[in-house]
Design goal:
This protein has about 375 residues and is of the alpha/beta class. It folds into two domains: about 160 residues, no CATH class; about 100 residues, Endonuclease, Chain A (3-Layer(aba) Sandwich). It is about 40% helix and about 15% strand. The strands form three sheets. It has a five-stranded mixed β-sheet with strand order 6-5-4-8-7. A four-stranded mixed β-sheet has the order 9-10-11-12, sandwiched between helices. A three-stranded antiparallel β-sheet has the order 1-3-2. It is globular, with a radius of gyration of 23 Å. The N and C termini lie far apart (about 55 Å). The model has no long low-confidence stretch (mean pLDDT about 95).
Length: about 375
Amino acid sequence: MQYRGTDIDQLIAEGNGRLVIKDGGSIDNRGLTVPTRLTEVRLKAAAHLNLPPEHPAVMAEVRRHYHQLSPEHVVAGNTIRPAALVAYTARDHPRRLHYAAGAASRAIAHLIERPQATASRFSAAALLGIGDFADAADTALLGPYSRHLAGSVLEPSVRRKARDLPSWTLHLGEHELQVTPPMLTLAHCLRAVLNGEHAWRTPRGLPHADATIRAVQLLDRYRREFRLSEKHLATGLRGLINHRTLHRLLRLSDGGSDSPPESLMRLIVRHAAPELEWRSQVPVHAADGTLLTVLDLAAITRRHYLYYDGDHHLDREQRDEDSLITAQLHASGWTGIRVTAGMLEGVHMLNAHLRVLVTPESRAA
């Protein structure tokens, strides 16, 4: 099937969205833990202990301070994911693998060790800048290999790369790393989600299948970061995803969700109050015309709003600002709910709160 995503990939490379990445460009290493060769760390540990590198005490010292993420690479132990988070996300992995190192770091290590390989699926997504959902996914590579699923956290899952499959080159220091381009990466990620090859926790109580919810969250992230429309995605994914499936997913998707929890919140409210038109990222201005806030979701005609409050809203300064904005909104005739992660897990209870918001008379029911 002919790849039709090249024009959309070029649009992304030209800076269409807030995330800019291009073929031949550099990987943004801000917040990225770049892996170090195990041999280099082992030699330093041996010198520090005044022992030969092959001495068991040397490797024991390395393991005390570093985490191995591939056969030949490590990262500092204080850079890995929290153990509780690793265990939590592993419950949804199809083979219950516990990935402590981030997806981008693992992908870089395996690409350095396999120069002929191309990162794909969520490994490519992480290198392209969309790391959501990736850290608990297998490292995925394409190349001159027979298909093999990762059997441990030190192995990648590999598939044979078709000769005509396009790839991008990304630079990281002296390394040139091959990745699938954005639209092809999205198609591969969607297939993995829809086929159950990668999963993450979704709440119970929505009418959509878990795989559908995950696919919509994924589409939302691409749309938001690269500022892509339904038409862009329909064009770029044509022939890569079943037409009916893609059409159904795009009808549920929205380019305004700032985070995966906001995508969940939108799916919940549109199911709970389908009679209202809910819009994402709605600006509200004060009487003097200055911007007061941007609502995560709003039914403008009824002046109802929803915010998703992530972890940073627990900070004292942020709470003070949130309270002030809430008071100003209510003074302007807006009513709404600030939704938290815990509330998203209780869909039925959140539905009850939403019904009270949109139909106050139901409070007495």
